[in-house]
Structure formats: structure tokens, C-alpha cells
Amino acid sequence: MESLLDQSSLFLQQLVNGITLGGVYALIAVGYTMVYGVIQLINFAHGEIYMLGAFLAYTMVTVLGIPFFAAFILTILICACFGIILDFVAYRPLRNAPRLAALITAIGMSIFLQNLALMIWGSQIKSYPRDMFPAIFLKPALSIGEVSMTWMQVFMLSITVLFMVILHLIIHKTKIGTAMRAVSQDKTTSALMGIGVNRVISFTFAIGSAMGGMAGVLVGLYYNAIFPTMGYIAGIKAFAAAVLGGIGSVPGAMLGGGVLGIAEVMGAGYISSEYRDGISYAVMIAVILFKPSGLIGRQIGEKV
Amino acid sequence: MRWQLYKKDPRFIFLSLIFLAVLLPWLPLGASSNYILRILTTAVLYMILALGLNIVPGFTGLLDLGYVGFYGIGAYTSGLLSIHYDLSLWVILPLAALNGALWGTLLGAPTLRLTGDYFAIVTFGFSELVVLLLRNELWLTRGPMGLPGIPPPSIFGHPLTHDWEFFYLILLLLMIVLLVVTRLQDSRLGRAWFAIREDEIAAQCCGVNLIRYKVTAFAISASIGAMGGAFYAKWFKFIHPDMFKFWESILILCLIVFGGMGSIAGTMLGALILIPLSEVLRAVLPQGLFNARYLIYGLVLVLMMRWRPEGLVPFERAQAKKAKLARERLEI
Amino acid sequence: MKRLCCFLFAWILLTGVVWADSIKIPIAAPFTGPLASFGEGMKNGALLKGEEINAAGGINGKKVEIVLEDELCDPKEAATVATKLANDPKVSVVVGHLCSSSTLAALPVYRGAKLPAISPASTNVSIGRMSPYYFRNVYRDDFQGLFLAKYVKTVKGYKKVAIFYEVNDYSMGLMLAFMKEAKKLGINVMGTEAYTADTTDFKPQLTKFKMMKPDAIFIPGYAPQGTLIISQARSLGMKNVAFFGADGLDDDLMVKNPDTEGLFVTTPFLPDKAGPQAAGFVKAYRKKFGKDPNWFAANTYDAVGIGAQAIKAVGQNREKIRDYLASIDSKDKAYDGVAGKTYFDKNGDCLKEAFVKKIKNGKWVSAEKQLQ
């Protein structure tokens, strides 16, 4: 009887872990999914924006002494600007070039930014000092038997859900959202209809990067570990989440993130912790091969 | 970079380079001669790897981010075969290449119908899975303990020990790969690849079987990568899963983008410049900056795509080249 | 063509620089990269020893030059650095490398060049027997794992232990040695879980451990992950579980985290347990670098000392130095360093004492009970 209780609380705790991790993936995945939805480009540098977000907030809090929540907002704004600059400098000149060129540029930017961070902040893992940490985050929010969840997890999850809803509303209820959907279907026709295509793309990058930066701050705080390569693995997994959910769809990113997070945690918990990262990659490959449109995405055919 | 001589006859510069390379171990370079030879061996190894990778993004126009996976498969095939069965190098090299081709086909057949970006990300996932397998399958690869004590290759019963012997061996391999790649480029296969690169749909309309030609390209590329890995294991005598991380794929991609995607001469030139450059950087840059040398590689990718997507030595079709040469001769 | 010539010329210039007449002792270790904080100890220890040798008149009248070679703990870089050193006639003995995988990659190069090397930090079991030119003044993983098992059993009395290891050679070597001894001593190893160096989320594995309710969790990994693991375990509500580790956790990073209170680790060097000349070393080190030396510093200090002693005795001949080092094979011939007496067995390995230290009130202190 006791072991059954243990088993079920183990499962519930793993579910909590998985959902939290999934929330992280979902937040990063939104950036991928929006950019891909609009210009059909895997923005590899998105993971690096997430990493820069974590570092920016960390630097603001520890070096400049800015209060945490102010630093949080500032970081999001800076990351949004950064996304626009990234698009302007790297991707816009290649809008009409072959897709291979844009893809290689994206990878180049990702590597460049990662190593830039390595030069600026060094490769050691950075942590927030304990006294600068908002203390409430460490307290358990709920604790039933052996299952516990901290306020930090609650905060992260609610922010994720909140922003997903806001984004969904922006895309479906506002003018700029309509423009984004139009551009994603056909750039030339949208331009003919009087949509400023580049402006819409910039806006997309800004929103995606703001989400990425926010995810960076939250994750940096949650694990209390910030390092230059953090964007590389998280970015790839988030991309996998975006594909899993159906690329181009915000609820899809949310769903994909959740499913991938839970799959990874359950895989590590019940199958093999050695192959934990492999589970995400395998899920990603399987989805791309067998259902490239994802769980709730629309079919994207090759345009002639 | 327009060399008059090269334009007149590429064979001239090629032969003089070979001559220089053969002579190199005997130049009076003093104490650092072995060090230079080792760097050059690395450079030639990367030339081979770059020539192999070039077939996929350069000839066929598909981004392959998982090339290092085949390199690793080749290295472990070679390492394990040498340790357990003590086979000769001339058996190991083809076996490793075959193993690479096998995995290339297995990966390529289901994935090559995907669009470019999805294909890139799947190849990336593949290479990460290969590293995970190398890391965790202790019974086969000894995992993170690495595979030490790989016996050196021997030729006619004479085990290779000196740096110059390995240098000649890799030069020989380069000749073979070069021969294969140049012949392929001008063959029916090559023409089909270029057609796919320029316009898939048009190629398909002309009767090119997309999947078959793409898989062939992928398999050949993989087998060259695996052969490079096989040499690498025999040369380093120690292999470790960390040697086959994603960065290697990026480095090799950077070589071909820098030199000229699709161009054989450019690919080789890219390796010949960038690989020793990293050693020069080691001597010149302070340690903290040297650590971030991939920054430069990233920048190279971005800047080349922006300003000179055709690379240092732009790709030229053999037919077009011949026609141009003939025209020039007529003018003289 | 012209450019190529220029290029070749540049190499020759860059690689063939002539050095002033001195004895080079290179230190090959990661000075940048994720393990840079370990390399820093090696760097400081070596620099201090070099300074002291020079202050005492150098080796046979020649100044010692400590050359730092950064290899990022990357096997490939290590092999390149090794080739560079092997071809430098001014180098007759190398001190390095730190990571076992780097050592294993550099080893064939040194063996080929008949260049003796002393590793102050690579604990992988297989290094010694692979080359007659490799020596080390640090114990092996199997000794450390065995020692820890004994300590846990006799001093702490833990009965149920779980192991959370990193997928690398160091961590797995320790785990296997620990498990083997634990079986003999009757410690119940309840489970083992793995993590990789680039993860920061350890909760799924820790949750499993939580349900097993072990007395203690053994972390045979490195400090950057160790500190995160302990914090995450505490936030999962694992309050009463003890944590212990090996020398990889012996880093100042651990004491910055208040959750690590009570952690104990093995270490080859304890300032207050070492011999009288160690007191002078600790004092000089504190004065020069403003902090206490860790075991990397102490072992490297000794390794440079052993190398210098060999050069002093037989000159700068690589072969002779190797023979000299191999001749230090018994307790009475041992090199008496700050981290205990060093003498080599037929594989070039050494047997040294291990100590235990723990975190108390946010500081590393020697554990009350040591195991001798």
C-alpha cells in the first residue's frame, strides 16, 4: 500500500517537474514558431537571445544593482529591440536569397552570439547571489505528501499561460496579427494589399525575442544557473517542441512544450536518465518524419 | 581572388601545391617541423571532410548539420576494428566508408523528402543521437572513458610512427577523394545533383528521381566523412565522444562556405586557410579570446552569406569552364 | 601561390621563435572553459613553485620558466598542445594534464616523443599502464572510490546510498570503484542515475532518489553541477539527505551556496593535516594569491618540484629524466612534498593518502574524523 502511494506521488512529482520544464520549452518555442510561421526560417539564434536575456538580467541585478522586477522588464524590452536588430542586420538582406543562405546565416549568428557571451561573461556557470533572490520563489507553494511545487514554478507557469493567451489574442484579434497571418501566407500579395511586410516581420521578431528573453530570465532564476551554452540545447529542444505542436501555431507551441517536457522527464524518470536528451531528439525526428504538420498545425505544402 | 594562372590552367597550381606538399617534410623547418606537419595533416584531413560535406550542401543544395555523426561513426568503426580485430588499414578504410554509407542511406532515405530546414534539423538530431550512443553504450565504445590504445596503421608490415608518414598517408587519401569527387562532379550523377540544387521541381520534371539522387549524394558524403574519421582514429590513437560534437559540423560547414560552396578548389582552400589560422590565432590571441575563436567562424558564415555567398573561389561548372578556356585560347 | 608562401612563412615565424636560455616547464591544463577554476589552482601552484625555485637560484644556474598551455580540457586541443611541447627542445618534462580524457589524448604524443610527463590531477585508472613516460602524483579513481566507501561505512555509518553521476570517465570510474567496495562492506547502493554536463535540470532524477529515501547521495562529479544538484534536491524537499562527493566537488563554488552545509568530500590535500613544509606553502600561497590553496595547487606545486628535482639531478635529457622519475619507487626515495610523500609504482602511479573535508558554517574545514 505504502509503495503504491510512493509510486503515485513519484508520478505526480515527475508530472509537476515535466510541466514546469514544458513551460520553459513552450516560452522559447513561441519565438521559433512565430518567426517560422511568418518567414519560414529556423531562427537558430533564438536560443542565444534566450541566453542573452538570462545574462542581461543577471548583470543588471548583480552588477548594476537594479531591482529584480525592473531588470526583468528592461531585459524583455532590450531583447525585443535585439530581435529587430538581428532581423535587420542578418536576415533582411537575405530575404530574396536562397533559403540555404538564410539558414547558414542563422547558424552563424547563433555561434557568433554564443561566443560573444563566452568572451564577455566567461564560461563559468553564473548564479544569482542568494540575498538578491526574491525570497518568496524558494518557498513551497503547495505540498501534498511528498509532492511539492515552489512559488517559482507557479510563477513561471502562470506567466507562460498568460503570455500564450495574450499572444493568441494578438495574432487573431488585432490588425497587426491579421497582417502577420497574411504575410505568412504570401508576402508578395500582402505587400500588394498595403501591408508593410518588413514592419510586420520586425514586429514578429520583436515579440518572439521578447518571449525568448523572458524565458531566459525565468529559467536563469529557476535553475539559478546561467552560462553561454544554455541557449544551444534549450533552443533545439524548444524547436522540437514547436515542431511537435505544429510550427506556426502558438497554442501548438504550448502543447508541444508541455508534451515534450513531460516526455523528457518521464523518460528520464522511468526509462533511462543517460538518454534523456536523446528522448527529445527522437521525438523531434519522429514527428518530422511521420507528422511534419505537428499535433495541431496546418499542413504547409511546398509552394511552387 | 582572381589568379591569372589558376584561370589559365587549374592543373598547374594543383600540381605545384602537391609538389610543395610532398616536399614539405624535408624542408629545414627546425624544431617546429613536426608541429607544422601535424597542423598540415589536420588541414588535409579537414580538406577531405570538407570535400565530403560539400557534396550535400554544395552540389545538392541541402543543409547537412549532422556530418560529424558520420565522422564519428567512421572513427569508432576504425578504432574498434583495429583494437578488437587488428585489421589492416586497407581493410578498415573501405569498411568504415561502407559503414558511413550505410548510415547515410538509413538516415537519408526517410528524411530526404523533407524540405531544407526540416532536413537540417533532423540531421542535427541524428548527430546528437550518435554522440549520445557513443557516450552511453559502454559495452561497445567504452563511453566517456574514450577508446585509448588504437594501434597505428602499418603499411607492408611497417608501422607508421612519424608525423611525415601520416602526412603522406593523408595526402594519398586526399588524392583518392579528390579523384572521386571531381569525376562525380562531371558525371551524370553530378549533373543531376546540380539540377536538384538549382530547381528541384524543374529537375523532377526533367526526369531526375529526386530521392534516389539525394540519397546517393548523402551516402557518398557520409562515406567520405567516415573515411576521414577512420584515418583520424588511426592517427590520434585515442578517440573520445567529445571529439565529435556539433561544433565539428559547424567548423566543416564554415570551411566550405568560406572557400566557396560547391567549388572543389574553394572547399580545399577554405580548409587550408582556416584550419592553420586557428593555430596562428592560438599563438597571437590571448587565451581568453582564443577560447572564443568560434566567434570568428560564426562571423565568417554571416559575412560570407551577406557579401560573398559564392565564397573565395566561386563554383564553376566544368563544361562552362572548358568553354571559357576555349574562348580565351581563341582570343589569343 | 605567393599568398601561400607568405602563409608558410608566417607559420615558421610564429612557431620558431627563439627563446632566451632557460628551462621551460610547461603546465598543460584548462585555464579557460568550464573547468577553468580547477586549472587556476594548477596555474597558481606552478607559478609559486617556479618563483621559489628561481629565488633559490634556479636549476643548476638556469632560470625556470613556467609556460602555461591552455587545452580547455578538450582531448583534441590537448593532443595539439602536446605536439607543440614534444617538438620544443627546451621542454624536457611536462606537468599536466588535468582532465583524464586530455591526458589520454596527449599520452600517445608524449610516448612517441619520449617526453616524460607528470599529471598532478588525472585520476583515470588506465593512464599509468598505457605509457612508461607518464607519471602522476595523485591517487587513482579506484583508490578514491574505495576510500569513500570505507569512510561512509565506518565513520558515517550510512546504510543506504544513491549515486548521481555525470557521464564522464572521472565520475564513472569513481562510481564503479565505490560500488564495488560498497558491496563488500554491505552498503546498500539503492540506485544510480546519470546526468550530462550541459543540463541544469536535475529534478527528474532527484525525484526518483527522493522516493528511495536514501541516507546519503554520492555525487562523483564536478562542482558547477554539484552545487545545482544540492540546491534542487533541497527545493524538492529533501531536507534530511546527506550529500558527499570526491575531489571534483572540492571547489570554492560549493561554499557560496548555503544549501551545501554539511557536504563532505575527499581531497588529496588538507592544509592542517599536511606536514610542516606545507605550512610554509599555505602561507606563501595566501600571501601571493589571497586565498587558501586547493589540492590542485598543492599537487601541481609538488609536480613542478619533482620535475625540477629530476632536471637538477640528470640534466635536460628526456630519457634520463624518465629513468630518474621511474627510480623514485620506494618510500625512502620518495619526494617529500606539501601534499605528502610521492613515489611511483611500476606504472608510474602513486599511492597517497586521502583526506576528508566538509562544509561547516559556509567554510571548508577538515572533517573531525579522518580515516588512516
Verbal overview:
The complex is a heterotrimer of chains A (304), B (332) and C (372). Chain A contains eleven helices and two strands. Chain A is mainly alpha-helical and 304 residues long. In chain A, strands 1-2 form a two-stranded antiparallel sheet. In chain A, a hairpin with a 2-residue loop joins β1 and β2. In chain A, α2 (46-62) packs across α9 (230-245), α5 runs antiparallel to α8 (197-223) and α10 packs across α11 (276-290). Chain A is globular, with a radius of gyration of 19 Å. The N and C termini of chain A lie far apart (62 Å). Chain B is 75% helix and 2% strand. Chain B has helices at residues 4-8, 10-23, 33-60, 67-85, 89-111, 116-136, 138-141, 163-185, 188-198, 200-205, 210-236, 246-259, 264-284, 287-291, 294-307, 318-331, and strands at 147-148, 154-155, 158-159, 238-239. In chain B, a hairpin with a 2-residue loop joins β2 and β3 (158-159). Chain B starts with a helix and ends with a helix. Chain C has two domains: 18-139 and 275-342, 3-Layer(aba) Sandwich (Rossmann fold), CATH 3.40.50.2300; 142-267, Response regulator (Rossmann fold), CATH 3.40.50. Chain C is built from 13 helices and 14 strands. In chain C, strands 7-6-8-9-10-13-14 form a seven-stranded mixed beta sheet, sandwiched between helices. Chain C has a five-stranded parallel beta sheet with strand order 2-1-3-4-5, with helices on both faces. Chain C is globular, with a radius of gyration of 21 Å. The chains are: A mainly alpha (304), B mainly alpha (332), C alpha/beta (372). Chains A and B meet through α4, α9 and α11 of A and α6, α12, α14 and α15 of B.
Describe the SSE topology.
The complex is a heterotrimer of chains A (304), B (332) and C (372).
Chain A: H1 2-39, H2 46-62, H3 68-91, H4 99-121, E1 140-144, E2 147-150, H5 151-173, H6 175-185, H7 187-192, H8 197-223, H9 230-245, H10 250-271, H11 276-290
Antiparallel strand pairs in A: 1-2
Chain B: H1 4-8, H2 10-23, H3 33-60, H4 67-85, H5 89-111, H6 116-136, H7 138-141, E1 147-148, E2 154-155, E3 158-159, H8 163-185, H9 188-198, H10 200-205, H11 210-236, E4 238-239, H12 246-259, H13 264-284, H14 287-291, H15 294-307, H16 318-331
Antiparallel strand pairs in B: 1-4, 2-3
Helix pairs in contact in B: 3-8, 3-11, 3-12, 3-13, 4-5, 4-6, 4-11, 5-11, 9-11, 12-13, 12-15
Chain C: H1 2-15, E1 23-29, H2 36-55, E2 64-70, H3 75-86, E3 94-96, H4 100-112, E4 117-119, H5 127-130, E5 134-136, H6 141-156, E6 160-166, H7 169-185, E7 188-195, H8 203-212, E8 216-219, H9 223-235, E9 242-245, H10 252-255, E10 264-267, H11 276-289, H12 295-314, H13 318-327, E11 335-337, E12 340-342, E13 355-360, E14 363-366
Parallel strand pairs in C: 1-2, 1-3, 3-4, 4-5, 6-7, 6-8, 8-9, 9-10
Antiparallel strand pairs in C: 10-13, 11-12, 13-14
Helix pairs in contact in C: 2-12, 3-4, 6-7, 12-13
